[in-house]
Design a protein that fits this description.
The chain has helices spanning about 45-70, 105-120, 120-125, and strands at about 10, 20, 25-30, 75-85, 90-100, 130-135. It is α+β, with helices and mostly antiparallel strands. The chain has two domains: about 1-40, N-terminal domain of TfIIb (Single Sheet), CATH 2.20.25.10; about 45-150, 2-Layer Sandwich (GMP Synthetase, Chain A, domain 3), CATH 3.30.300.20. It starts with 9 loop residues before the first strand and ends in an 18-residue tail after the last strand.
């Protein structure tokens, strides 16, 4: 397998600490929705993961559409990442991916989302432990872009 590039980040202080990259592109103080007083200090690890997954899956949608011969005129993807706890006290992630894909009919849009889910590196990495649901959201002129409140981790 050929490595295309490697991303590097470091954490100090765990979920309630900071993350940074050696090149300085990322230097973030984390918030923790589970710790009083830190809920809104900064993004949670799950929120950062949601943004990264949404971007990666969005790229996979464009690649899948191209392979399917589809032309998507406009698109938007959102990821909702939940931290869950099982009966034994183990922690897991669950993900809901939502997409709005204009320019293609519903059946083709669903097929493109499924194709993207098979090739997206984030989807592949989560397979086997984290449930991921795919939802095609409606496109309508009266619907605004996904709002900030829609992007919060649930």
């Amino acid at each position: 397998m050929k490595t295309l590039f490697t991303a590097e980040a470091a954490s100090k202080g765990g979920r309630s600490g900071t993350i940074h990259t050696p090149d300085g592109l990322l230097n973030v103080e984390l918030g923790n929705p589970l710790e009083a007083g830190l809920e809104t200090r900064g993004p949670s690890p799950e929120l950062l993961f949601a943004g990264a997954y949404a971007a990666c899956f969005h790229g996979a949608i464009h690649n899948a559409a191209r392979r399917a011969g589809a032309v998507i005129q406009d698109s938007e993807v959102r990821a909702l990442v939940s931290l869950t706890e099982d009966a034994e006290g183990g922690f897991h992630l669950s993900v809901a991916l939502h997409a709005r894909l204009s320019g293609v009919d519903s059946a083709l849009a669903h097929r493109v989302m499924e194709m993207a889910h098979q090739t997206c590196p984030y989807s592949r990495a989560l397979r086997g432990d984290a449930p991921v649901t795919l939802t095609l959201d409606p496109i309508a002129p009266h619907l605004p872009p996904y709002e900030r409140s829609d992007l919060q981790t649930r």
